[in-house]
Structure formats: structure tokens, C-alpha cells
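Title: Comparing notes on inverse folding

I've been comparing how different people in this forum approach sequence design from structure. To keep things fair, I'm posting one structure and asking everyone to reply with a full sequence. Here's the target:
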């Protein structure tokens, strides 16, 4: 994608749209009230819009509506409780401890509930130590509710006018991530690239792809309008998303023994051609994404089928000159052509006047999304020190309440207490690694932002110019909040300083104090994550490993069912595939967090890294085989292949029970099948399938070995 398109694509993106929505909600009340001579009133109304706006994360319209309403109600109740108990230091300390634990436990439900809990804690901290009369409290609450309602009106007016815009933006982001994934796959055919480093990047990208796919599913498949609506746009987006998921599966299926392929074909020039074609495939996906963002008609840029034909011809010449039969490269070319055909299919959708989707397929879309919003059984199940969320809630409760109590006892400044507590709230995360990362980002962002804010205040005395800069900083900060936290903080800090300058405060002195308060809050958050109910990934990792092994087992087990003559529903196949993607993403995220923990907690890092890479290879080979099994004649599979399938499954089974020997009803073993009678073991497809299965058995054995080593090391600690 061209740089100009990348820049304009950001302004079309959901991130900028979200920032613009929050900016309109928060700034317009300030402008209107300032013109009426009621600047303070405007800031109170703005606060309601800002808090509720921050809770309005992407998702299905019904979930968003429920979320903002729940956030408004809980915030109002929190304000009332906080203001009523402010007069007593002990009562307020207990309140902070109680609400800190309760709202942090909201994370057990889902990400939206977690954000709502954070916003409720934020509004509690804003009102700590503020003393109001009953009349002032009612006035304050009314302004907050007006601001919340104002934001809700803006947000859902936009949704009503453009019901598919959010799904369109999230789908575009998904396509960009898939394009990046294919670019990384292309690096495997570059003999100069490091295979291990590329695997690590590929795993990180798979996590991002999975996150965006889940968001699209939530928005599209939870929306009754997009499922039942007969308009072209809703069906158009659904079809594109389905093809993008299939395309991502095909990109995973282009996996072979790259070391062997490099050794054999390094000097042929064929690998360079494959790399260039895959790069052009990613450019086509970039183009589709940009056009979807900009609501323009996507048009094909490269004749990829022509280039694939040229590659195939070059391969035939190579085989003829060397007397070889490059079956692996032929399968790679077939796979790339399948990816290209899916891209061409997406282009064709744009030309159709009517798009039809099978009713059965649409009826099953609800199976791909989680329908439970509030599950109190899940809340009760997490009331244990074995739960990372429970540990985090306890840590948040103790840290916030004790910090508040101690700072009050030593007569710390009122606004300083708020800023220290706010810093702790923002920085303190469930895992040590996340807390460490966010801590560093917050401190660096605050220092840089403080310098920028001071320069603006010293060099620009005009209040109108300052206000324009304030709006720009606000918009940038909240547009980047979810994608680049450190840049968001850099712009958020001067925004706060400029805002305070309108109240007549000594902003340069405040800037210095805020940096000190941020450092203090960061230190407290960091230390608490280390000593107060610490949540080490090395102790939690077995659960993610087990879930991933089971997901791989159940996905590969479908091959046995297909070979036994059973008809596998496409929905069941895709659900199993989805579980593998989710479990792989969770495992990858866990490993990334493990790398940020103290060195003395990283005794198993080497084993976990090997497990993650082996799993990626195993999943890719499984996908390759399942794709061949779905599309090819089953006569290409023989009884030896069935035996190899069973061997791979048995290795996975042993690995699962190595991690946990307890019986699990969700882990169902496959049954044996009769011998395959009709088979053609001498075909090209049959030969490469057998080779791939042999490699799959080897990888599954390696997974079992590394799992055993990891469990052994964990037991030694």
C-alpha cells in the first residue's frame, strides 16, 4: 500500500472514527458552555461524555447499547457512594478496596465489561476527596448524565445512519493483518531471512489476525440486521469475511519443510518468484482493504494468474532440465492459486448487483460468537487464587486502597493523590509483563507530553490558538489510544495541561508535579505487581498449552471422521478451525508476556518458545492436510496414512495427559475405522500426503517431548 493510502486509510479507520466520536462528545459541551460563560459546567458535562465514550468499544450494536447504559448507571451509583463516604478516611478506604475488587472482577465476563469496570473506577477516583452539598451533588450528577446521554445520542445516531460502517472498518483492519501475515510467509522463500525470527513474527501476527477476526464476528454475526437484512451491503461484507477466513486458512496451509526447500531450490530462482507472487498477493489485499475503508470500488491491480502460469512453466523447465519432480513446489503453486481465486472472488462480489448467501450458512453464524454477556457462574468460578483475574482484582483493591490511605496520612496534595491513583489504575494489569510494559510507556509518554505541553504554554499565549491545539491533541490521543498507547499519552498529557491553563492554574508547576506523581504511581504499580498476589505466566502456562493441544487434536480428528465416510458439516469444520486459531493466539500472547517477566521466572522460556513454534508448524501441516482432504479424492489416502494420522493423534493425547492426567469430558478421543479399500498410493498427491503425514508425526512427537520437558522443569521449581 502506498504511503498516501496508508495515511488516508487511518482517517477512514475505526480508530480515527472512535477518536472523532469521543472528541465531538467531549469538546462540544465545553465550547457551548464556555460561550455561555459556564466553562466549569461544560467540563462536567464533557466528563460524562468522555467516560461513557471510552466504554463504547467496538462490537455488535446491541452489546454497545447495553454497555453504555450499564456504564452510565454504574458510574452514577459510584459517584453517589463515593461522595457520601468522602467525609470518612476509613470508610473511603474500605469503599476503594471494595469497588476496586468488584469492578476489576468484571474482566471475567468479557473485554467490554472490563472496560466498563475501569471507567467506574476512574469516576470513583475523580470524586475521591471532593466534598459536595446535596444540591451540588444532584447538580453534578445531572451534568454527568447529560454528558453521557449526549455521547449516546451522537454514537448511535452515527450507527443508525451508517449501520455497516463499523463492521466495514473492522473487516478492513482484518484484511490488512492477513496481508501482513502473507508477507511474512513470503519471507520463508527468501534464503537470506532467519527462519526462527520469522516464525516468531508470524506467531505475533497470527495473534493480531485472530483478535480482528473475533471482532468482525462479534459485529457481523451478533447483528440481526446484517444476518436477516436483504441489502447488498450486509451480505457483501459477510461474504468477504467468510472468504478472508478461508484465505487465511489457505495461507497457513502453504507450509512445508522450508529448510529442505531452501537447500534444494536455493539456486533455481524459483523461490524468489514465489516470494514476489506472495508479496503481490499481499498488495492486492492491501488494495481491497484500502478501498473498503474508503468505500470505493476495489479493482484488481496485478494479473496474478498470469504470473502463476509463468511460475508453473519455469518449474516445469527446471524439472525437465534436472530430471526431477518437484511435487512440493507444485502443491505450493496450487495453494497460491487457490488464494488468488479467493481474492478474485472478492473482486467479483463488487460487480454483482445481487448477492445470495445460503440460508443454512447464515443460520449457523451465531455458533461462531459468544452469546453470554453476563455469566455469574463464571464470576463464582474465578473466586480463587488459581484465577489470574481474581489475583489482579485483589492486587488492584489492596494497592489503590492502601495508597489512598497512606498518602492521606502523610498529607499528600489532593490532586496528587488522584493522579497517583489514576496512574496505578492505568498501569496495573493482570500480568507482571503487561504492567511493566504499560509502566514504561506511561512514564515516557508523560515526560515527553509534559515537555510538549510546557512548550505550548510558553510559546502560545493566545487562548483561542491553545484551544484549537487542545482539540487536535485530544483527537489524536483518543484515536491512537487502542493502537499506540505511548503516543496517545504523549498527546493526552499536554491536552490536560492546556485544559488546566484555562482555569488560571500554574500549569508549569502542575506539569512538574504530574511527572513526579506519575513516577510515584508507576513505582507503586510495578512493585505491587511483583509482591501482591503476583501472577506469573510460567505458573499459568500449562492451561493454555493443554487447550491448544486439545484444539489441535479435535481439528485433526476430523480427518479420521472424513476418511471413515462420515459427512462433516462445514460449520463444524470451521468451528474446530476457529478454536485452533483462538488457542494458538492465546498461547502466543502468553509466551510474549512470559518474555517480559523477571529472568528468574524464565527458566522454561526455551521450552515454551519451542512449543509455540512446533505448534505453529503442526497447525500449518494439519491445515494443509485438511484442505487436501476436503478438496481432493480420498483415494489419495491409504491405510498407512490412517496409521500415521492415529500416531500423530496419540502423541497429542499423551501430551495432553502429561499436562493434566485428570479426566476431561471436553476431550473426546476418536474411534478406530475400517481399512480403506479404494486407494491410489502411487499418485503424486498420495506421495506428498504421506510425506506430510510423516513430518506431522515427527512434529507431534517433538510436541510431546517438549511438553514433558516443560512439565518436568515446572515440577522442579
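Reply #1:
Here's my take.
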Amino acid at each position: 500500500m502506498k504511503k498516501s493510502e496508508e495515511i488516508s486509510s487511518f482517517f477512514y479507520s475505526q480508530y480515527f472514527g472512535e477518536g472523532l466520536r469521543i472528541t465531538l462528545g467531549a469538546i462540544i459541551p465545553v465550547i457551548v458552555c464556555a460561550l455561555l460563560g459556564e466553562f466549569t459546567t461544560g467540563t462536567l458535562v464533557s466528563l460524562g461524555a468522555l467516560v461513557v465514550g471510552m466504554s463504547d468499544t467496538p462490537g455488535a450494536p446491541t452489546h454497545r447499547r447495553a454497555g453504555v447504559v450499564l456504564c452510565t448507571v454504574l458510574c452514577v451509583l459510584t459517584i453517589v457512594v463515593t461522595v457520601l463516604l468522602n467525609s470518612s478516611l476509613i470508610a473511603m478506604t474500605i469503599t476503594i478496596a471494595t469497588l476496586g475488587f468488584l469492578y476489576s472482577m468484571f474482566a471475567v465476563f468479557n473485554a467490554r465489561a472490563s472496560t466498563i469496570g475501569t471507567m467506574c473506577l476512574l469516576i470513583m477516583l475523580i470524586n475521591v476527596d471532593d466534598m459536595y452539598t446535596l444540591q451540588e451533588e444532584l447538580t453534578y450528577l445531572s451534568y454527568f448524565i447529560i454528558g453521557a446521554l449526549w455521547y449516546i445520542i451522537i454514537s448511535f445516531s452515527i450507527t443508525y445512519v451508517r449501520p455497516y460502517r463499523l463492521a466495514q472498518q473492522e473487516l478492513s483492519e482484518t484484511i490488512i493483518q492477513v496481508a501482513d501475515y502473507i508477507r511474512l510467509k513470503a519471507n520463508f522463500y527468501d534464503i537470506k531471512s532467519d527462519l526462527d525470527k520469522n516464525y516468531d513474527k508470524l506467531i505475533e501476527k497470527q495473534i493480531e489476525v485472530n483478535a480482528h477476526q473475533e471482532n468482525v464476528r462479534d459485529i457481523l454475526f451478533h447483528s440481526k440486521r446484517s444476518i436477516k437484512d436483504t441489502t447488498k451491503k450486509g451480505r457483501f461484507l459477510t461474504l468477504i469475511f467468510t472468504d478472508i477466513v478461508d484465505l487465511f486458512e489457505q495461507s497457513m496451509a502453504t507450509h512445508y519443510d522450508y529448510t529442505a526447500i531452501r537447500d534444494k531450490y536455493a539456486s533455481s530462482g524459483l523461490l524468489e518468484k514465489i516470494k514476489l507472487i506472495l508479496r503481490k498477493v499481499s498488495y492486492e489485499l492491501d488494495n481491497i482493504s484500502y478501498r473498503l475503508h474508503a468505500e470505493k470500488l476495489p479493482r484488481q491491480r496485478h494479473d496474478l494468474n498470469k504470473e502463476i502460469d509463468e511460475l508453473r512453466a519455469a518449474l516445469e523447465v527446471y524439472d525437465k532440465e534436472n530430471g526431477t519432480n518437484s511435487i512440493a513446489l507444485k502443491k505450493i503453486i496450487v495453494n497460491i492459486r487457490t488464494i488468488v481465486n479467493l481474492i478474485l472472488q472478492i473482486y467479483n462480489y463488487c460487480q454483482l448487483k445481487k448477492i445470495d448467501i445460503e440460508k443454512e450458512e447464515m443460520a449457523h453464524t451465531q455458533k461462531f460468537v459468544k452469546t453470554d454477556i453476563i455469566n455469574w457462574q463464571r464470576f463464582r468460578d474465578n473466586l480463587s487464587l488459581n484465577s489470574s483475574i481474581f489475583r489482579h482484582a485483589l492486587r488492584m483493591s489492596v494497592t489503590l486502597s492502601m495508597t489512598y490511605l497512606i498518602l492521606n496520612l502523610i498529607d499528600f496534595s489532593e490532586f496528587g493523590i488522584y493522579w497517583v491513583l489514576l496512574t496505578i489504575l492505568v498501569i496495573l494489569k493482570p500480568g507482571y509483563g503487561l504492567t511493566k510494559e504499560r509502566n514504561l510507556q506511561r512514564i515516557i509518554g508523560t515526560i515527553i507530553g509534559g515537555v510538549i505541553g510546557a512548550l505550548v504554554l510558553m510559546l502560545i499565549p493566545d487562548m483561542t490558538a491553545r484551544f484549537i491545539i487542545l482539540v487536535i491533541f485530544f483527537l489524536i490521543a483518543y484515536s491512537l489510544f487502542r493502537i499506540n498507547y505511548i503516543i496517545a499519552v504523549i498527546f493526552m498529557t499536554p491536552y490536560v495541561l492546556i485544559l488546566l491553563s484555562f482555569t488560571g492554574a500554574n500549569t508549569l508547576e502542575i506539569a512538574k508535579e504530574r511527572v513526579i506523581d506519575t513516577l510515584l504511581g508507576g513505582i507503586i504499580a510495578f512493585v505491587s505487581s511483583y509482591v501482591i498476589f503476583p501472577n506469573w505466566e510460567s505458573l499459568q502456562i500449562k492451561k493454555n498449552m493443554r487447550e491448544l493441544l486439545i484444539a489441535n487434536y479435535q481439528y485433526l480428528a476430523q480427518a479420521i471422521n472424513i476418511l471413515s465416510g462420515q459427512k462433516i458439516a462445514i460449520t463444524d469444520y470451521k468451528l474446530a478451525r476457529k478454536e485452533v486459531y483462538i488457542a494458538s493466539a492465546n498461547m502466543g500472547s502468553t509466551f510474549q508476556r512470559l518474555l517480559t517477566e523477571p529472568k528468574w521466572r524464565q527458566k522454561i522460556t526455551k521450552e515454551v518458545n519451542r512449543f509455540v513454534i512446533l505448534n505453529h508448524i503442526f497447525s500449518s501441516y494439519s491445515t494443509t492436510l485438511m484442505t487436501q482432504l476436503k478438496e481432493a479424492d480420498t483415494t489419495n489416502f491409504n491405510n498407512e496414512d490412517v496409521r500415521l494420522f492415529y500416531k500423530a493423534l496419540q502423541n497429542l493425547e499423551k501430551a495432553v495427559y502429561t499436562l493434566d492426567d485428570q479426566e476431561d469430558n471436553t476431550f473426546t478421543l476418536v474411534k478406530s475405522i475400517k481399512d480403506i479399500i479404494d486407494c491410489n498410493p502411487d499418485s503424486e498427491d498420495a506421495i506428498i500426503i504421506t510425506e506430510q503425514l510423516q513430518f506431522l508425526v515427527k512434529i507431534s512427537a517433538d510436541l510431546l517431548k517438549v511438553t514433558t520437558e516443560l512439565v518436568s522443569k515446572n515440577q522442579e521449581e
